[in-house]
Design brief:
Radius of gyration: 18 Å
Shape: globular
Largest sheet: 7 strands, mixed
CATH superfamily: Vaccinia Virus protein VP39
Bound molecules: ligand GEK
Number of helices: 9
């Protein structure tokens, strides 16, 4: 790995830490940042491909909402070749999509993949057999989350699948504290300093709003999903699957 691709965003003292944004400074270091910050990230991406294999119907649509550099898009695409499907990879960061465009061009596929620069709350969902929100719902304002999940539910075909992977909040507070400390130890083990951990924490405070597993399940059920369950958890990160 070159220095250009190493996440050093918070390595030096920043004084007042600015709020985190997905701009040009994040694009090159994004794969390193997410791998070293999210325990279980690669497992979740791999299993997103597995779920695509099981759920994606011939000629249907897949949505990777908050796609960044397309890790989920690529995992899905690899598993649905020949199904005449379309993947819509959506992000509101033009810089991320530019880079994803280059990545996709370097890895040809017969599956139609469309990049959409948009707020995920504005996207129309139709004929969907798989919708993926991998570490994205956590950035959507709390009051918009139910409407987004409802839109996804309406756009899914019967037996369609929604994957939601998130940083999670836990109760009681002592459990939340324990899982947070285990996460910070994971980051230290990945080479992040205490300064980097603390400045990143300040940068995402109020930007990334985690909820409890129960809140996610309740929202999914209120929006119509009869089947919804966590399928993976490592410390305070996890993934849920919901079937229409
Ligand atoms: C992965 N899924 O590699 N509308 C559109 N995009 C958004 C919005 C929004 N309202 N809010 C945030 N984003 C990817 C990782 S990263 C997770 C997802 C992380 C986008 C934002 O621009 C960024 O690219 C992505 O969601 C979140 O599995 O960095 O913790």
């Amino acid at each position: 790995m070159t220095d250009k691709n190493r996440d050093n965003l918070f390595a030096r003292p920043l004084g007042k830490v600015p709020k985190f944004v997905f701009d040009r400074s994040v694009v090159d270091i994004f794969p390193d940042m997410i791998q070293r910050s999210v325990p279980g990230y690669q497992t979740i991406i791999n299993h997103t491909g597995e779920l695509a294999d099981r759920f994606v119907q011939q000629g249907s649509h897949c949505y990777d909402l908050g796609c960044s550099l397309g890790a989920s898009t690529l995992a899905i695409r690899e598993r649905i070749e020949g199904r005449n499907g379309t993947i819509f990879a959506v992000d509101n960061s033009a810089e991320m999509l530019d880079q994803l465009n280059n990545i996709l061009a370097s890895q040809p596929s017969t599956t139609n993949t469309q990049l959409i620069e948009s707020d995920i709350c504005e996207v129309q969902i139709t004929n969907a057999s798989l919708v993926v929100l991998n570490f994205t719902l956590q950035f959507v304002p709390l009051e918009q989350r139910s409407e987004l999940i409802s839109t996804i539910y309406q756009g899914l075909n019967p037996n369609g699948c929604l994957v939601i992977s998130e940083k999670l909040h836990f109760q009681p507070e002592s459990l939340n504290q324990l899982l947070t400390e285990l996460h910070h130890q994971f980051k230290r083990d990945q080479g992040y300093s205490d300064l980097e951990i603390s400045q990143k924490r300040d940068a995402i405070d109020d930007v990334l709003i985690p909820e409890t597993i129960d809140s996610h399940i309740e929202r999914l059920q209120n929006c119509g999903f009869k089947t919804a369950s966590p399928w993976f958890q490592c410390y305070n990160f996890g993934s849920l699957v919901a079937i229409k």
